Amino acid sequence: MGRLLLINIMDYDNDPSLKRVGSDIDVNKLTDTFQTLGFKLYKDKVHINLMHIEMHRLIKEFAKDPINEKASCSAVVIMAHGFQQGLIRAHNHLTISIHTDVYPLFSNETAKALKGKPKLFLFQTCRGTNLTSQVDNAGDIGKRCLNKTMFSDMITIYPTFENYASVRKKEGSWFVDAFCKVFSNAEDTNSMEIRELLDKVTLPWLRLP
Description:
Elements: E1 2-8, H1 23-36, E2 39-41, E3 47-48, H2 52-64, E4 73-79, E5 87-89, E6 95-97, H3 98-102, E7 119-124, E8 128-130, E9 154-157, E10 163-164, E11 168-169, E12 172-173, H4 174-183, H5 186-191, H6 194-206
Parallel strand pairs: 1-2, 1-3, 1-4, 4-7, 7-9, 8-10
Antiparallel strand pairs: 5-6, 11-12
């Protein structure tokens, strides 16, 4: 059984212009996809509109939960507005860093129950304000190299390059839609490695002229 922590910052305190329209659709798609893959939602719910302290506390609780001893793998999905250098904006506009507030919580020393088990991180956030030459090209897969003695069995998924914006419409984000279509295909998930599946997610954009 896999364990899934799903966080969606859909609205921002006192600023309606920052509402992430369509993110509720992404939540439904991701929930269905991960449940199909055998994941169980942490605390049986999606966590919506968290303050930065609440977000960090929840991630820490998830990483250290004793139930992880029985888990075969884990996944952390955070959807929000984001900035360069791995900063994620919480509901109260303050930020957490994936490099200092997320990854260290899942090190082999800190999250001992998850040592040797696959840990997937999906950050559906912008990583800057630039637009790619083809705005449709929103399917970059990014991996960050970390200290192998402290961090292992991790893969990080981004919808875009560093310094670039992510694409989302009222129907949801293009990247989440492609991710869910690929990972919901039982024939592929039973026969392909995760790296091959992630490569397949990007194919629609790579074929664009």
